[in-house]
Amino acid sequence: MTPTLMWTFQGMCCVFQMMKSKADEEDYWNSSKFKAFTFDDEDDEFTKLKESRQAVNSICGLVEEEEDEDEVEKVSWSGEPVGSEGISRFLSDSETGSGASASSPCVSCFLLPVSCRYLVVGQGDGVQPARAELPQDRHDAVAVSLEKFRSLQEKLLLLDEAVGVHDGNVITAVLIYLKKSLSKEVLFRELESRQTALRHFIHYLTESKEQRLLLELYRALGRTEDEALLQYKEHLRITDENKRRDFLKSCVSLPFSPEDAGHVQDHYTLLERQIIIEATDRQAETGGKVEIFQKFPRRASILNMPLITTLYYCCFYHYAETEGTYSSPANIRQTFRIAEKQYFVTALAARAKLKAWHDVDALFTSRNWLGFTRKKSPLSFSRVADILSKNNAPVQVLQEYVGLVDDVELRVALAQKYKCHFIVISTYRDLKDRQLLLGYRGKVERGSEEERKIDELLSNPQIRWKN
Amino acid sequence: MSERDSPELPDFSVLKRLARDQLIYLLEQLPGKKDLFIEADLMSPLDRIANVSTLKQHEVDKLYKVEYKPVVSTSDQLCFLIRPRIQTVKWVCDVVNADKAAGKFKRYKIIFTPQKFYACETVLEEQGIFGDVSTDEWAFYLLPLDEDIINLELPEFFRDNFLEGDQRWVRTGGSALHLFHSIYGPFSKVYGIGRCSKMVYESWREQVKEGEQKARQAEVGTVFLIDRDVDFVTPLCSQVVYEGLVDDIFRIKCGCVEFGPDVTSSDKSIKVMLNSQDKVFNEIRNEHFSNVFGFLSQKARNLQTAYDKRRGMDIKQMKTFVSEELKGLKQEHRLLSLHIGASESMMKKKTKQDFQELLKTEHSLLEGFEIRECISFIEEHINRQVSMIESLRLLCLLSLTENGESNQFSNNLNSAWPCQSYGVDHLLTFANLKQLGLLVEQQPGETLTVMESKMGKLVNDKTAGKLTDAFSSLAKKSNFRALSRRLSLVPKSDEEYDLRVPRDMAYIFSGAYIPLSCKLIEQVLERDGWTGLEEVTRLLNGHEFAVTGSNGADLRPQSDAQRIILVMFLGGCTFSEISALRFLGRERGYKFIVLTTAITNSARLIEAMLDNHV
Questions:
Q1: A169, A308, B8, B584: least surrounded by Cβ within 10 Å?
Q2: What is the dihedral of CA A72, A73, A79, A83, to 10 degrees?
Q3: Per UniProt, which keywords does this protein have (chain A) (predicted)?
Q4: What confidence score (pLDDT) does residue A295 get?
Q5: pTM of this structure
């Protein structure tokens, strides 16, 4: 059992005499989450790899840090104390470090960003920041070139040291330097065995939109699925639907996982079809000859909508079409292998929206081999009633489905919720519950047909009431 | 345990003053009139510490929001107050380069907050304007949102750290803790769990310079650090405590909420600050929603009685009434009608979406009961294209609680149906959810688990990158069921749970579930460490720590400072968790202060994973 819920929303409503619940007028299109995307047309050029590194070098002075012993207790990953040569110390102690001597290039002689403050004319060199009162004032003053780390071994040591202090800013800084000073092949090879650094590098490339380099990296690492996904993501930048379709077509052969490959194939097929449907329907709409488009003008283009939305659209505008057309719901269902339940829910919602109760009825009707009809649904009838009521179905329609709910309690609850009085009445009669029926008499309108029905039952001598 | 008097909370207004003074100092670094461009998500935090006239006093002429469009400013000095993001810096570069091309010469200053990143300066360099723009840092780490909540306002912390594996905010976390420590410390006990927590702890330790701490009376003595990925289940649950529910429905932004016409029953929206200053709100914020109505109607009756008092008063009494009581009553009246309006509006919204059934599904998932029914509920949600965020949330909850083993019931859930209903674009979103461990694909049985533990020891960062990658997804198994049993997170359901008189923290989820995060905190405080919780930490993949420092701090457990506990959530926490901690504090005589990188909830958590946009 689930824990007892001590409260119900319905029950609480009376506390403040809540406003009478207005039937929701939610419109499908309005409520649909799928709005058009905005694209940023920025075109990434593969230029940054060849960045000149002169600029910074010429202005950076070399400052090294004095290593003072620090007895602050530390907990390190391995359980050993963190060495006092930790990189980030040099970031934080920057103010004090200017007099240190540099004898040999060591890993700890590392340093970070140049503060522009000292480069801009007129910016007060001598100003002592009031910030000194604040606990930290770290990258402010110092800049040292990374240029002295020239051998691969030194570079890698630098990188490992950076990773060791868990400061992403430092790791990325080193990576930016390595990116400039190592060939791609070497860098990629070394990153492969350094997961933390690798993830920083991938994130940096993603943020700075260096798409091509990132693709090359994935390829070099054999991460083909990531490569495929990244390439596929590019379609979001393409606004022209025909170009987008062609691009998606080219994506189909990318090395996706088998599951994703199916989705991408579907994406292409769907857009191709949407383009055809959109062209035809737009024409039909402007032509003014097709009644349904006049009566229910389209609020948005069907392009780039999800599959289920497309199915809904086709059930709405193209329900009766034969299976041969691209826009027929049956054809869509078959092409995209839509499960029965999904098809059913969508068709039901679309036809109910149009108040095409005959179609709704037909959806449920099945004939057995003797030719008798009966109502069958892949969906519980309580759900069916819910969908119908959300589409403002009249009581006459609703009660037919509420009446098919097996569970008696649920049936009565739904019937009361949707005001299907006759269902409530007949259920009470079947339960032979005179008290409930009597009680319900107070809830129906005076002099109504429902009241007459109740009176008729109550005075029926043939019913053997249980109370 | 009996209730004890809770100690007094320290005063956090000094944090605001500190931030404001520093900003003023930075603005004065660019003397003369200037236009100020503010990053959109810094507007609200800025509002909390300064106002327009403060800025005007320091020669800010016009204020603009950063909108990534060409600027129209005519000022010859431009100042940009931004987060350290590459995209924003690129935009600043465009602005500067456009001016250059037009032959305009201006002075530019970028103030990064809370810190600058090297990658951002690289952009300046690459765009050829390094040197033309001065940069500075505004170390605005701690924004007090309420008397017991301090926010870093860094929602991107979550995605950057846990999804992208970028540790750029680790140092920020350390600096935030350092700032707090230097004002309210020294801390004598620090507990924590999670990879990021451990790194933040270390970063903080490195920033504490020796001798810096003067021997003084600590105001806060105990700290608990916790990573968001230690407990994903809690933030994915629907919130039913008043403040959490308001956040889920209206989205509280930086301690402020905008109530629309449906709440105010007028044609305009109003913005309301939600904190302990609001007396009505303060009394209901931690209450289960089912109690709120009773409380509000009682309050309304009391108010009526108070108003009625004036009947039969003589002139003198009336005068006193008007001058002394009426204003307070009117204020209370206004607040009361606001919260009644909000409650009504929330109720309507929740009734419409079958909230009752949704909660039932969540509770079944937490309990591991009737999973098949839950799955068909989720399927239907997806098939009917009900809110995508909601569907993904339920899918993640299913995957976390069932450890991915629910796949045997439905193969279509993990991407096929969602892609059909919400768009194939979301393949990328699914890749993210899997990467983060929110969606787990079914693993073929035990064999991998055994392998994992054997290989885990051999694999390290340098030797076998690929293996680490493969195993890291395995390590993300949530083990929720086992944890739930061990920590008794799901109370026995055959007992009635009286939500008006909560007996434990489970009340925040209608008595169905004690939030894992808060339970861990409770256990560690009770045991004064992790002893006895070895199995739990193993199930949580370790990374727990407990440090008892000395540096002259007061270690007597009864002292007030020891009973004021700072809980730092790395990656965000929910209002429900805060309510649970307040409850725990009342029960045990603690006071909790929550320091979080952001206030989160299920929708924000899932939205951070969406990747169907450029």
A1: B8
A2: 10
A3: Cytoplasmic vesicle, Endosome
A4: 86
A5: 0.80
Going by C-beta distance under 8 Å and a sequence separation of 6 or more, which residues neighbour residue B32?
B59, B77
Q: Which residues of B touch A117 (CB under 8 A)?
A: 134-136
Average pLDDT over residues B588-602: 94
- Quote the tokens at residue B81: 């107050």
Last residue of a domain, one of B140, B163, B194: B140
| pLDDT (0 to 100) of residue A368 | 66
- The domain tally of chain B equals 4
Higher pLDDT, B507 or A378: B507
Asked whether the ipTM of the predicted complex exceeds the cut of 0.85, the reply is: yes
Query: The domain containing residue B544 runs over which residues?
Result: 144-231+515-609
In chain B, residues with a C-beta closer than 8 Å to the C-beta of A202 are 164
Question: Which residue, B351, B386, B414, sits at the end of a domain?
Answer: B351
Question: What's the confidence (pLDDT) of residue B143?
Answer: 94
Do the domain assignments include residue B485?
A: no
Asked whether residue B172 is assigned to any structural domain, the reply reads yes
d(CA A157, CA A190): 11
Q: How many domains does chain A have?
A: 1
Whether residues B181 and B258 share a domain: the answer is: no
Task: Encode burial over B335-359: b for 16+ CB neighbours within 10 A, e otherwise.
Answer: bbbbbbbbbbbbbbebbeebbeebb
Residues of A in contact with B464 (CB under 8 A): 193
- Structural domain range at position A395: 370-466
Contacts of B314 (CB under 8 A, 6+ apart): none
Average pLDDT score over chain B = 85
Give helix A307-317 / helix A340-353 axis angle, nearest 10°: 50
How far is A235 from A219, CA to CA, in rounded Å? 19
SS3 B82: strand
List the beta bridge partners of residue B253: B256
| Residue contact A379–B380, C-beta within 8 A | yes
Q: B466 with A271: CB under 8 angstroms?
A: no
Chain A residue at shortest CA distance from B367: A2
The answer to whether residue A389 neighbours chain B at the CB level (below 8 Å) is no
Chain A residues lying within 8 Å of B460, measured CB to CB: none
Residue of B nearest to A204 (CA): B119
The chain A residue lying nearest B174, using CA atoms, is: A167
